[in-house]
Amino acid sequence: MPLARSGHEPGPNDVAASVRAALPSVEQIFSKYIEALGGNVATGTKTLVLKGRREASQDRNWPNEITLAVPDKFLIIATTPQGTVRQVVSGDKGWVMNGANVRNLAPAEALEAKRSWDDLFNIVKVKPSQNMRPGGIQRWASAKLTLSKTRQTPRLNVTTSTPRQGCC
User: Fold this and answer.
1) Rounded to whole angstroms, how far apart are CA atoms 132 and 157?
2) Dihedral sign (CA 27, 29, 35, 39)
3) Strand ranges of the sheet holding 93-98, from the earlier edge strand across to the other edge
4) Which pLDDT value is given to residue 157?
5) Of 157 and 119, the one with more pLDDT
6) pTM for this entry
């Protein structure tokens, strides 16, 4: 009678386990990330101007113009039916102008506004930190992702492959 084996032990006809490739370094991941954004052409951008229209329910639609100047300045102009509203932030200073009314932003408000607009409009969304570590590679929708979240160590999520042909 043959000997029984447990499910975690290899059998005589099992395929040998493949050797896992070493994970890319944080520097390699960021290099590919910057390359995917457009390299120096995209990351060297110092001023970004967006002009468009805000559209919301109940016909609350109006033109907006947003200007960002790297690293810490932005201007938002919204033309509403009630008048033009401007929000300006430069470093830790800021102002909101609504018609003839001007309100100074507290330094914390200016920094929070800058953080919000950075998240939305900055070309580079993720920046390396000293304690980042690669977390592993997993296939998802035919793209390779570097897994990143742990409670102890912040890690990085970056798509490292190009989109499939015919995709976005």
Assistant:
1) 11
2) negative
3) 47-54, 62-69, 73-80, 83-90, 93-98, 101-105
4) 46
5) 119
6) 0.55
